[in-house]
Amino acid sequence: MSYTMPPYPELRAADEAESPPKPPWQVELDSGVVIDLLSVAPGQYNRGSKRLFAGERPLHRVTITRLFWIGRFPVTQEQYRRVEGNNPAHFPGDRRPVEMVNWYEAAIFCRHLTEREARAGRLPENHVFRLPTEAEWEYAARGGQRSLGFKYAGGNRVEDVAWHGGGMGGNSAYETSPVGLKLPNELGLYDMSGNVWEWCHDWHEDYPKVSSLVDPTGPLEGSHRTLRGGSWGYEPACCRLTRRDGLTPAHRYCDLGFRIVLAPPLKLLKRRTGREAHLI
What is the average pLDDT across 107-122? Predict the structure, then answer.
């Protein structure tokens, strides 16, 4: 594995004016396979909804205080294979998102990538590859400081930005599609609405009944992990930026994938069994 390191930017305060985007963080795997991660500057956004959809209330203000990088695309099959040595996907294709990956396997991918880059001395201090928190995921999907307030990640017309299902009105042919074929969002991120649901770090429960949160990481324990973004098999309502879902972390299905962030590590949390979870 080789690596191209851009200048490491200083972190900015969440209330500073918007600055030009930082260079992508680019990890080059063998045979020319690259993972691109784009920078997301700190900021604030309104999370949740006033509508009656389950799990989306209350509307509350979230502050992200630290810059992080997030994958331009969900992890693809060729990327997963270069790191893990196998491809579990039901719908084969190097440029399609990897699926049939449970939460533990997604976290292990992040850990293995962190270990490889750390051994080579290519990680900034106190940074790891990991799954995004739900707050980080939604902030990035909304476009961060560049958000234009769209309903979906990148626009208000679902056909422009997402591969989705939904009776006779879907556009996905009920399978995954290669990443990057729809329009990106304001940060240049693709497929954050539709294609595959994406695992997040957090345990899945209702939002706390508060008006604001700073760098939230979810509940301390739970039975389900959070999923965001919708997929090829779900109607457009599930591709909305506010839509939340969750499954047991051992669950696999052919519309469950993930994308990674490069960010400071999160604390080890515990499951209700009392055993430590696979976190880095």
Answer: 96
